[in-house]
Specification:
The protein contains twelve helices and eleven strands. The chain is of the alpha/beta class and 284 residues long. The chain has a single domain, classed as NADP-dependent oxidoreductase domain (TIM Barrel, Alpha-Beta Barrel), CATH 3.20.20.100. It is globular, with a radius of gyration of 18 Å.
Length: 284
C-alpha cells in the first residue's frame, strides 16, 4: 500500500470515510458496518475519518465514533490514525454549528470517551461557525494540543486565509485540511495547492461527488469512465488515482458501506495513470 504523511505520522494513501456507516437511511446493520471497517484494515488502510455528528439524528450523536472504536477493538488492528471532528451539532435531524471554545472542548472530551483513547490522533474543526470568530476556534484547538487531549489538528471546509490563521495560531500541530474535492467539484483546487506548498495533508471529502452522486460518476465524468474502460477498472478507482496524482499531500477518504467498495478503493493506491490519461482527466 502506497504511503503518505499527515504531520509526523505515516498513513495509507487512501483512507476510509466512515460517515456512510452511520448517516444513511439504508445503512448496513451494525455487524456489517463493522465488517466494512475490518475490510478496510485488511486491505491496508491505516487512516479512518469519522466525526461526532455522524449519526442519523441528535438522539444517536456519536454513533460513528462508537462504531469505529468497536471495530478497531474487535479487529486487533495495527496502529491506525483515527481522525475525528467537532464543531457540528445536531438538532433532531438538522445540522447546526458551534465553534465556541467551550463547546469544542466538551466535544473533544466526548470524542475521547467514545473512542476510548487518552489523546485523539487528529482532531479537526468540522466547519466554520459564523457566530464564533475563527481565531477563537483556532485558539481552542491550540489549547487542546497544549493540554494533551489531541496530538494533531486539522480544519475542514476552510479557505486559504483561514488555513493561514490556523497555521499561525496552532503552530506545528496544525497538519491537515479536509475540503470537498472531486472530478465534478474542483473549487478547492487553490486550497489543495496551498496545502502542497506548505506540507499540509489535504483530505478530499466526497471524492466521488457525494453519496448520491457516486453511483452516477461514470455518467457525470465521461473522461474518467473512458480511462476506466482503457484500464479495465472501475471509474471510482480511476477517480482516486487521479486524486493521488494531484499532489503528494493528498489522502482521499472515500466513504463505503460495502466490503467490495473498500477493496476497490484501496486498490487505487497501486493504479498508475499515464501522463496522457492524467492530462485528459485534468482537462475534463
Amino acid at each position: 500500500m502506497q504511503q503518505r504523511r499527515i504531520g509526523d505520522v505515516q498513513v495509507s494513501a487512501i483512507g476510509l470515510g466512515a460517515m456512510p456507516l452511520s448517516t444513511k437511511d439504508g445503512r448496513p446493520p451494525r455487524d456489517e458496518a463493522i465488517g466494512v471497517v475490518h475490510a478496510a484494515l485488511d486491505a491496508g488502510l491505516t487512516l479512518i475519518d469519522t466525526a461526532d455528528a455522524y449519526a442519523r439524528d441528535e438522539a444517536e450523536f456519536g454513533h460513528n465514533e462508537e462504531l469505529v472504536a468497536e471495530a478497531l477493538r474487535s479487529h486487533g488492528s495495527p496502529e491506525v490514525l483515527v481522525a475525528t471532528k467537532g464543531g457540528h451539532t445536531r438538532r433532531g435531524t438538522d445540522w447546526e454549528l458551534d465553534g465556541s471554545p467551550a463547546y469544542l472542548r466538551r466535544a473533544c472530551e466526548g470524542s475521547l470517551r467514545r473512542l476510548g483513547v487518552d489523546a485523539i490522533g487528529l482532531y479537526q474543526y468540522h466547519r466554520p461557525d459564523p457566530a464564533t470568530p475563527w481565531e477563537d476556534s483556532m485558539g481552542a484547538l491550540r489549547g487542546l494540543v497544549d493540554d494533551g487531549l489531541v496530538r494533531m489538528v486539522g480544519v475542514s471546509n476552510a479557505d486559504i486565509a483561514q488555513i493561514d490563521i490556523a497555521r499561525s495560531i496552532i503552530g506545528p500541530a496544525f497538519v491537515s485540511v479536509q475540503n470537498q474535492f472531486s472530478p465534478g467539484w474542483r473549487f478547492s483546487a487553490d486550497e489543495l495547492a496551498h496545502c502542497a506548498g506548505h506540507g499540509l495533508a489535504f483530505l478530499p471529502w466526497s471524492p466521488f461527488g457525494g453519496v448520491g452522486a457516486a453511483g452516477s460518476l461514470g455518467t457525470t465524468a465521461p473522461a474518467f469512465a473512458e480511462v476506466a474502460a482503457e484500464l479495465g477498472v472501475s471509474v471510482h478507482r480511476v477517480a482516486l488515482a487521479w486524486h493521488l496524482a494531484q499532489a503528494d499531500v493528498v489522502v482521499p477518504i472515500p466513504g463505503a458501506s460495502r466490503r467490495e467498495s473498500v477493496e476497490d478503493s484501496a486498490a487505487a493506491a497501486g493504479l498508475a495513470l499515464t501522463a496522457d490519461q492524467l492530462a485528459r482527466l485534468d482537462a475534463s
